[in-house]
Each structure stands twice: as structure tokens, then as C-alpha cells.
Amino acid sequence: xxxxxxxxxxxxxxxxxxxxxxxxxxxxxxxxxxxxxxxxxxxxxxxxxxxxxxxxxxxxxxxxxxxxxxxxxxxxxxxxxxxxxxxxxxxxxxxxxxxxxxxxxxxxxxxxxxxxxxxxxxxxxxxxxxxxxxxxxxxxxxx
Length: 143
Known about the structure:
The chain is α+β, with helices and mostly antiparallel strands. The protein is built from 4 helices and 6 strands. It has helices spanning 2-41, 45-49, 70-80, 84-87, and strands spanning 59-62, 65-68, 89-101, 104-114, 120-131, 134-142.
């Protein structure tokens, strides 16, 4: 009987801790996305890429196919958005941010670019993983 009472007392505390941890993860991921919006809108593509895992294992999938690696992804962005007129102002709308497993989340949403060369928009799904204490994008599919 004492064990059951103990479990009933501890279980809500554990559930509350798990929810608090998930809320902290969500806030940290949203902060990365906010920093990316700001960097992109300042045409700071390297700053935008700070949100990505700096690894040859990073994967980006878009309308031009699969790009592997952090440097290759940066080079792709530089080619496609060479000036402020091309990068414009970025805004994300987050539709879903869900935990996949411990230290991994997906984010689904829409992006909007307000640009002098013509506005653009699309959808994305990105996978965040906590690496060395920091939330980083390890996979991105945008179209």
C-alpha cells in the first residue's frame, strides 16, 4: 500500500518535470528560429546557418534535390540569394512543433519572403536535435 501511495505522489511530479523540460526545449527551438529570421532578413546567410548542424551529415531537400553538408547548404543559399534584394525579409509561421524522441523535435510550418525581386513562400519540415547542449537543424525539407 505504501508503494502505491508513493507512486501516486511521485508520478504527477515526474509528469510536471517532463512537461517543463519539453516547454524549455520548445522555447529554445523557437529562439533558434527567431535568430534565423533576423539573420536572414539582414542578408546574413552565415548567421542564418548558425541554426544548422555544422556537419557533412546535414541534409537539405528542396526543389533542386538533396544537398548534403553544412558548407554545401550555405553555398546553395549564397547562389540562390546573392543580395538583400533576393533574400528579403523572412517570416516563419509554425504549424506544429512536436517531440519525436529525447532530444529530437520536428517543426512544420510555412515561410514567407517579402522581396524586391518578388515575394516567395513555401512550406517546410525541419528536424532539430540537441547536439552538445545546443538545438541544431539536422535535416530540412523546404519547398
